[in-house]
Amino acid sequence: MHRGDGVARLRNAPTWLIKMAAERAGRLLADGFAAADSRGYHYLLLAALDEHGPSSQAELGRRCGIDRSDVVAAINEMAAANLVERRPDENDRRRNVITLTRAGSRHLKRLDDVVGGIQDAVLEPLSDRERQQLLRLLAKLVDHGG
Amino acid sequence: MHRGDGVARLRNAPTWLIKMAAERAGRLLADGFAAADSRGYHYLLLAALDEHGPSSQAELGRRCGIDRSDVVAAINEMAAANLVERRPDENDRRRNVITLTRAGSRHLKRLDDVVGGIQDAVLEPLSDRERQQLLRLLAKLVDHGG
DNA sequence: CTCATTTCAGTGTTACTGACATAC
DNA sequence: CGTATGTCAGTATCACTGAAATGA
C-alpha cells in the first residue's frame, strides 16, 4: 500500500500521482544528498556555478529559482565547507562574487552521480519510448503553467 | 523562465520535471486549501473518514500515509473547528474514535471542489488521450517503487 | 530618489524521529 | 512480557515574507 492509497478518490487523480512520484524522487534525492553531506539547494547552486562561472548571489538565486535569503544560508554552509569562495565584488560593492573551489567541483561530480543513479532508479519501469512520452507530457504541463 | 531553468543539466531530467509539475500542483492545492482554511492533511483525513467511517487515529494515519504524531496535530485543529469529533474508544481504551461531523462533511465537499478545479487547471494543456497516457505512465512509476 | 543586493529573523507545510505513559 | 496507541517535543528541507543596511 502506498502513500494515500487508503483514500479512494485519490487513486485516479493525476495531480496526486504526480505528487506521489515527485515525493518518491524527492525522498531519494534528499537521502542521496544527505549521504553526501548536502541538500538540494547545494546541488542547484553548485551546478549553476559550474555551468555559468562565478556569479553574485542574486544571479544564483534567479538561475536556480531559490529565494535570495535562502541563497545566503546555503552559501554560508558551502563556504564553511570550502565548496565555494565568497568575496566582495570590486566593481559593484553591493555584491559578493561566489566562486566554485576545486573541492566544490569534486563535490558536484559526486552529486551528479547521485542524481544520475536516482534518475535511472525512478525511470526503471519505463521503456525508452515511454520515457520520451513522459518527458514530453511533463514538459507540456510545466511549460503551460509552471 | 521556470524554476531551475538556469541550470542546463536539469532541463532534460525527468525527475526534475516531475518535481516541477508536482510543485505547481502542490502550490495550487495549498493555496486552494488555505482559501478554505485548511491544508493537505485535513483533506486527506476528512476523505478517509468519509470513505471508511469512524476510525482511530492510528488507522487514519495508516490509510492516509500520515505519521501518528502529525495526525494528532491535524485532528486537534479539526476538532477545534468542529469538523470532527474525538471521543475515547470504549472497547480499546488506548484509542480515540474520530467521527466526521456534519460540518466536516460540508467542508469536505468544498475541498473536493477545490481539488477538482485544480485537477482541471493542471491538465488543461493535455488532450484526453494524453491524460490517459500520463495517468498510465505515472501509475507505472508509482506502482513500481512509490 | 529609486532600485538592487545582501543579510537576518521569522512563518508555514510536509515529513520524520525519539521519548513517554497508557493500555492491550 | 512485547506491542499498539496517543501525545509531546524537536528536527529538517523547501518555500516564502518582511525589514534593515549598504551601495549603484
TrEMBL record, chains A, B:
One of its GO terms (molecular function) is DNA binding. The keyword DNA-binding applies. It comes from the Bacteria. Keywords: DNA-binding. Transmembrane segments: none annotated. Residues 11-143 form the HTH marR-type domain. GO terms for biological process: response to stress. InterPro entries: HTH_MarR-typ, MarR/SlyA-like, WH-like_DNA-bd_sf, WH_DNA-bd_sf. This is DNA-binding MarR family transcriptional regulator. It comes from Herbihabitans rhizosphaerae.
